[in-house]
Amino acid sequence: MAETLSRPQNPREWLALVLVWGAAGLVTAVFCWLLGDIVWHGLSHVSWTFLTAPPENAGRRGGIGPILVSTSLILGVCLSVSLPIGIGTAVLLAEFTSNHSLFGRMTRRSLDVLAGVPSIVFGLFGNAFFCKTLGLGFSILSGGLTLACMVLPILIRSTEEGFRAVPTSYRLSAAALGLSRTTTLVHLLLPAAVPGLLVGLVLGVGRAIAETAALIFTSGYVDRMPESLLDSGRALSIHIFDLSMNVSGGDANAYASALVLVIMLLAINGTVSWLAIYGLHRKIVAA
Amino acid sequence: MTSLSSNTLSRWSTDELLCWSLRGIATIAGAIVILIVVFLIVEALSALQHVGLLRFFTDPSWHPAEGLYNLTPMLWGTLFAMTGSVLIATPLGILSAVFCHYYAPLILARPYRRLIELLAGIPSVVYGFWGLVVMVPLIAEIQPPGPSLLAGILILTIMILPTIALMADASLANVPQQYLRGAAALGLPRWATIRGVVFPAAKSGLFTGVILETGRAIGETMAILMVSGNVVQTPSSVFAPIRTLTANIALEMAYALGDHRAALFVSGLVLMAMIVALVVSAGWISRERMYG
Description:
The complex is a heterodimer.
Chain A: H1 11-42, H2 48-52, E1 55-56, E2 61-62, H3 65-96, H4 102-116, H5 119-133, H6 140-164, H7 168-176, H8 181-192, H9 194-210, H10 213-216, H11 236-245, H12 251-286
Antiparallel strand pairs in A: 1-2
Chain B: H1 13-50, H2 55-58, E1 62-63, E2 68-69, H3 72-103, H4 106-121, H5 124-142, H6 149-173, H7 177-185, H8 190-201, H9 203-219, H10 222-227, H11 245-252, H12 258-291
Antiparallel strand pairs in B: 1-2
C-alpha cells in the first residue's frame, strides 16, 4: 500500500514521517549498541577451555564448564515434566473440549494468568513448595520443576495452535473410517501438529535458559560440578548476575558468559523461524 | 470447535480412558495458579497475623530486623519505574509497528521485524548487565550516583518495547484491507489514514499490548535490580536510587527468616494481585472486541 500513497505534502505528514523513521532508527541503534558491546567485549574470552574449565576464584578466572552442565540438567528436568503435561493439556483444549465449555474456559483463563505471573513470584512459590514443603532443598530438581510451571503456558499455547492448524477433513475422514479418536490422535493429528509442538518447545527452552529470578532461591548458587539432581547447581544466567553484582573484577568473564547465553538464544530464535517457515510449507504440501 | 467434539459417535473404551487422563493432566496445569496463590497466602499468613495488613503501609520505615515493615517506598519505586517505562515504550513500540506496516520499504520491514523478535528473546540478566556496565556510568556523568530511577526506567523501556511492538504489529496486520483502500480512495495522506482509520480499527489490540507490557514492567526483577541502586526510599528525582517490590524480594529472600520472610511473601501477593487485575482487564478488552 506504500506505493499507492503520494509523497507527504503538509507539515503534519512530514512530522509523522520523521517520527516513525526516528523511532525505528532509535530502536535499531540501541539494539546494535547492546549486541555490539556484548560481542566486542565477550568474543576475545570465549574459547574451548572457557566452555569446559571450572570457574576459579569465584568466577573471575577459569571457565563455565560445570555451569553449562547445571544449566542443561535444569533444562532437562524442566522439559521432561512440562512436555507431557503441556502436550496433554493442549490436546485436551484443542480436540476434546469445546471453546465454550466451563472447564475449557477456566483452564484457559488460569493459563493466561500463569503466563503473566512475574518470575520472582515463581521463585517464591518454588522455594516454598518444592524446596521446603516437598523437602527437595536448593537443588537442580527444584529449579527445573519451578521452570516447568513457568514454561507450561507458552508450550500449551503453541502446541494447541499446531493442533488447530490441522485441517478438519483429517478428523472427518478418520471418523468416517471408524477409527477410534485415540488412533486418530496418535497416527494422524500428532504427526501433523509436530511443527506447532516444536515451535512451543523451542520457545519454552528459550524462556527457561533466559530465566534468572525464579532460579536464585530454587536451584541456588553453587558453582561446583553437580553430582546428582538433588545437588544445587548454578545456571548460566545466575552466573552472569553473580559475576556482575557480587564479584568485583568479574566483568570480563561476565561478558563472555553473556555472549554464550546470547548466542544460544539467537540459535533458538533462528530455529523457531526456520520451523515456522519450513514446517508450515511441508504441511501445506502434505495437505 | 470441530464437529467431533461430542462423544456420542465414539464407541471406544480407550477414548474414554484417554479423555479422562487428559482431563487429569489439564487439571494439574490449570491448578498451578491456584497452588501458587495458596502457597503465597500460607507463607504470608504469619506476617498478616502478627503484623496486620495496615502496618505494611503505615510503619515508619522498612527495617525488618526491628520489626518495621513499610512497603510503600518499594510500591512507589515499582509504580514510578512502571509508569515511566510504559510512557516511553508505548509510543516507540506503536511507531515501530507503524514503520513496519506503512513506512518501511519491504526490504527493511522484514529484517526490522526479526530484530524486534530478537530483542524480545534476550534474557533480562543480559539487559541488566549491559545497563550496569554501559548505561549507569553514562548517567553517573550527568548526575551522580548513576544507579537510579532513570536507569531503571530506560532499561525497562528497552525490555518491554518488543512486547508492545509485536502486539501492535499483530493488531495492525488485522486491520481490514478495504478500510485502507477506502482511505486511499478518499485521497487521505499516509499519516491521516493511520491516525483516522488504522488506530481506531486496531484500538483493542493496542490496549491489550499496553496491558501486557505493563505486566512485564511490574514483574521484571533482575534487570531493574542491577541498575536502580536498591536504596529503600521514595525517590525525590529521576536521578535518585530506588528499590522495587520485585528487587526487594530477590535481595532479601536469601537471609530472611520468620516474619521478615513472610513479609516478602506479602509483597509477592501484592505483585500477584496486580498481575491478575491486568490479565482480567486484558480479557475484558478482548471480549469487548469480540462483541463490539
